[in-house]
Every structure is written in C-alpha cells, then in structure tokens.
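Entries read sequence, tokenised fold; example below:

***
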Amino acid sequence: QVQLVESGGGLVQPGDSLRLSCETSGFTFSSESLTWVRQAPGKGVEWVSTINNIGTTYTDSVKGRFTTSRDFAKNTMYLQMTTLTPEDTGVYYCKLGGRFSPESSPRGQGTQVTVSS
C-alpha cells in the first residue's frame, strides 16, 4: 500500500537551515506529483510546494528559501529549507498528489519544525 514517511524536523534558530525527507513506497514514484504542506499551531493546512514531471512550484512565502527535489533511486522527496523564520514553524507533511488533491490523499504522519530563538 502507499506509504509516506517524513523525517528531518527539529528545533532550529531563525536563519538556520533544515532538510526534510519524505520516503515513499507503494506507487510509481517517477510518475506522480508529490506535495509538501504544513500546519502551524492553531491554523489550517497551508500548501508549501509541489513537484512533478512538469516542474516545481512554491507558495510565495517560501520562494527563494525552500527547494523541493526528488531522488528517484531512493523514492524520496526532499524539502531543503534555508533562512528559516518563526513563521515557518509547524508540522510538515508530504502527500501524494498535487496542490489541489483531495484531503483524503495519502500523506505521512508529519514532522515538526520549530523555529525559535
């Protein structure tokens, strides 16, 4: 079955960098869109980035700071985050599908990112 497992979160200071990983299985990795979303404390789910065979897109607040990539040999997607700010704090999830995929789309359990001094 489809599985997505995030890792790499942690507590960092403003300005620091962090790389999240999303290990996947159960589907054809090279054919599908994959998306990062995040949820800040007390807020709704926010789309962060989507990668597919057409390209990669980002929400405006992370453009130039975050980079999404894929390792086809490892069936793993990454989110390289730089110049982190407290506003980037939240639980980050990877999900199968594009930006507007249904809420029911498979996703991982999430990884916590906390940016604080």
Q: What stands out?
A: The chain has a mean pLDDT of 97. The radius of gyration is 13 Å. Residues 7 and 21 are 5 Å apart (CA to CA).
